[in-house]
Design brief:
By secondary structure, this protein is of the alpha+beta class. It is built from 22 helices and 24 strands. β20 and β21 form a beta hairpin. α16 packs across α18.
Length: about 775
């Protein structure tokens, strides 16, 4: 949170009044929206046999419905079954879009400024660290679930200090008054230095204060000075004595480390005006969360004695966030904590309030105290705290281009009615099977009931019966005709299934199911998948921009909260490497934060594997070198699905990375500028020198290598010397393996009878002629 602002009781009442008036703008619309969102959430929880009760103003379960005639315990009807195609298709859509996290690009504010470029690159590293700390894949799945059920996603980015993340030792300084002595040039009286007057050591207690000052003065004057003004060299004269306040290190304090906290909420928890088209139109953003009243008292001790648990389930807000299955067992120990962000123009809602004197002055005072906006916290309706905090600095809201307002239609909204129809058809089919055995009625005069009951049934058994005179025996029996499954029932269920796929864009090719129509070839599967992903790509683009905006705010907040250099470890092939985020690289400015425009819909593992196999089948030597490069070793293993797969050169790469870390720790006092050998010797016989050389080259041109070159030239030189040793060893091996050179052949000598004559055959048109 930002700076806490103290408010008077009148100002607290004014803030609460602003929140209440901004809430009432679209209260009726808000209640209708909550009803739709809650139905989707109930269907997602597989609580699908519900109906809306106008009396209870709530969704009730059909199985708990009782007829007004009385007890229905004798009713042996079959409980309806749930066939959750709404959730199944939703999980397929979510899985397709959550195959990977969108890539975020940080652009420098000035592409010609090296500081801005370095800062933009460092923000990319911060983004990776923040995603690791916040478990980004889980948050991203939750974001997609909210988009599927509620159609709107709002993310909140904050900084959380906690000792569970570790502690940092922060030095503490205290101001100390010290007497200083000037050293003056005896020729031109230029002040050469200012030295503190120190004590005389062990014998200081034997001297008077005047004698201690004389000794300190003599010590400060024994040093030889060079005057920059007149060029005098020698001891200085004593000048004025003055007092100066100097900060001195008095100790260290353990400060808890912090991390970025990213939370995603839907409109059931976040209240946003229904008429808003962009985030700038939102005058009030309200986050409502239920917690135990004891936890609220601990978090807000200033109003702990006033906090009381409530169970006002009549409130649409809390009712919408509670499952209908739990409403019968009300949670009486809950309170609703309301975090309300108000823009400065939102205070104008208090202007002209009836029964209040001088509202204009109160509005001006609130705007002056909250120039960036107000974050007011209420426990139920009790004012707790207020902060000067901007809504735009912490909140990001999805804006669906397919809708005219921020509150877009949920992705799964179109499948709710299909889910109802599908459940009815499938349950009707089950009932037809269960009650499909017909009943048989018999005339009691033709069959002895007692004898028949005592007789055991079995194949070929004979039962004696006497028919009525003058009529066949079959006329004394009657069998009912029951409904039976037919082709139309199966076709209707299949049609509803296809309708759900079309409405959601979740065709079978996305989740590996079989196609109903077509030739069912591999090409047709790929085309069907591509068409489906193009449709889901609209939602993917929406989420990409939301994620980029969220990560941009998270990285900026992280950079402002850094108190020391941060680091994290990531896997690099079969080895690990430490990535540093240094404060010295955050001196520039970052411009736009955007999603990668070239990044298309995320590829699944099977798609990556198919693409990898296609590249192998191309038999292109250049692509082969790229895929077998040591830096791509882990990607190759992942594509093949064999973690134990051995790739030549991978072990040498890991060894060289370890050696680079050792080489980079060398300082200027450990190696001479004209050194010719590194501090880590190479293994001439065992090392694969080409791999080691390639790894060193890649490190030297990487951001880590360039930073090492600027901050620790000795360590960088040590790595370069190590590479030269590998170059020399490789050149020696190539020279030893080269075939011996043949001596030049002498031209043939002429004989005594003249030069040798050769017979040459000229072939022209199939004929020949000798000469």
């Amino acid at each position: 949170m930002a700076k806490k602002i103290e408010l008077s009781e009148d100002q607290q009442a004014a803030v609460l009044s602003c929140v209440t008036m901004l809430e009432h703008d679209d209260q009726a619309i808000r209640e209708r929206q909550i009803r739709v969102y809650k139905k989707a959430e109930e269907y997602w929880r597989l609580n699908q046999y519900i109906y809306w009760s106008e009396v209870a103003l709530d969704y009730k379960n059909v199985t708990n419905f009782q007829e007004p005639s009385g007890n229905d315990d004798d009713n042996e009807s079959v409980a309806p079954k749930t066939f959750a195609i709404y959730r199944a298709y939703g999980e397929s859509v979510i899985a397709a879009m959550a195959a990977t996290i969108p890539t975020v690009l940080f652009f420098p504010d000035d592409a010609d400024n090296p500081d801005d470029i370095n800062t933009a690159k460092t923000y990319s590293l911060i983004s990776e660290l923040v995603q690791r700390h916040s478990r980004a894949p889980l948050i991203f799945i939750h974001i997609l679930t909210l988009l599927y059920n509620q159609g709107l996603v709002a993310t909140y980015t904050s900084w959380n200090d906690d000792e569970k993340y570790g502690t940092i030792k922060i030095p503490k300084f205290t101001n100390e008054n010290v007497k200083m002595q000037q050293a003056v040039c005896p020729q031109c009286e230029t002040v050469l230095a200012n030295s503190p007057i120190q004590d005389t050591g062990d014998a200081s207690d034997q001297l008077t204060p005047e004698e201690q000052a004389d000794v300190a003065e003599e010590k400060s004057l024994e040093q030889v000075y060079t005057c920059p003004n007149c060029g005098y060299e020698g001891q200085a004269e004593a000048g004025e004595v003055f007092d100066e306040t100097i900060p001195r290190l008095s100790g260290y304090s353990d400060t808890p480390k912090g991390r970025i906290n990213i939370q995603a909420f839907g409109p059931l928890h976040v209240r946003i005006s229904s008429y808003a088209r962009t985030i700038d139109d939102v005058g009030l953003l309200e986050l409502q969360i239920e917690m135990h009243y004891a936890a609220a008292r601990d978090e807000f001790p200033e109003i702990a004695d006033k906090i009381r648990a409530t169970s006002d389930f009549y409130s649409y807000e809390r009712w919408g966030r509670t499952s209908s299955e739990l409403l019968s067992d009300q949670l009486f120990n809950q309170v609703t904590v309301r975090y309300c962000w108000i823009r400065p123009w939102g205070f104008e809602a208090y202007t002209g309030r009836s029964g209040v004197m001088d509202t204009d002055a109160t509005v001006k005072e609130l705007k002056k105290k909250f120039p960036h906006g107000c974050c007011a916290i209420f426990v139920n309706d009790l004012f707790a705290r207020a902060f000067d905090e901007s809504l735009d600095d912490h909140w990001s809201v999805s804006v669906n281009p397919l809708d005219s307002f921020i509150h877009g239609i949920p992705i799964g909204r179109a499948a709710l009615d299909v889910q109802d129809a599908y459940n009815e058809v499938k349950n009707l089919g089950l009932q037809k099977h269960q009650f499909g055995i017909s009943e048989t009625f018999v005339d009691s005069t033709v069959l002895d009931e007692e004898s028949y009951r005592q007789q055991m049934a079995g194949p070929g058994y004979i039962t004696f019966a006497q028919g009525n005179p003058g009529s066949p025996l079959g006329n004394s029996f009657f069998q009912t005709r029951t409904a039976a499954m037919n082709e139309e029932d199966a076709e209707l269920a299949s049609a509803l299934n296809s309708d759900a796929q079309f409405l959601l864009g979740a065709v079978p090719s996305i989740f590996g199911g079989s196609q109903v129509t077509g030739s069912k070839t591999a090409t047709e599967y790929n085309q069907s998948r591509n068409f489906a992903l193009q449709r889901l790509g609209n939602h993917w683009t929406n989420i990409k921009f939301l994620w980029a905006e969220t990560m941009g705010k998270a990285c900026r907040l992280f950079a402002t909260k850094m108190v020391e250099d941060e680091k994290y470890v990531r896997q690099n092939g079969n080895s690990f490497e430490t990535v540093w985020i240094r404060q010295a690289e955050l001196t520039g400015k970052v411009g736009n934060v955007e999603p990668d425009p070239s990044e298309q819909f995320p590829l699944t593992w099977s798609q990556k594997r198919d693409l990898f196999m296609q590249l192998i089948q191309m038999q292109n030597p250049i692509m082969g070198q790229i895929m077998m490069h040591p830096n791509n070793a882990q990607n190759t293993k992942d594509a093949l699905g064999f973690p134990e797969f051995f790739i030549p050169g991978e072990e040498d790469r890991g060894k060289q990375l370890i050696e680079i870390r050792k080489l980079s720790l060398v300082t200027s006092d450990m190696i001479q500028p004209n050194a010719t050998q590194s501090t880590v010797p190479i293994d001439v016989d065992m090392d694969e020198h080409p791999v080691h050389i390639q790894v060193i080259k890649l490190f030297c041109v990487s951001p880590e290598g360039l930073y090492l070159k600027e901050t620790n030239p000795a360590g960088y030189l040590n790595i370069v010397l190590h590479k030269k040793e590998h170059d020399a060893a490789m050149a020696q091996q190539q020279q030893q393996q080269a075939p011996p050179q043949q001596p030049p052949q002498k031209p043939p000598q002429q004989g005594a009878q003249g030069p040798m004559k050769l017979n040459v055959v000229h072939s022209i048109g199939g004929g020949g002629q000798q000469s």
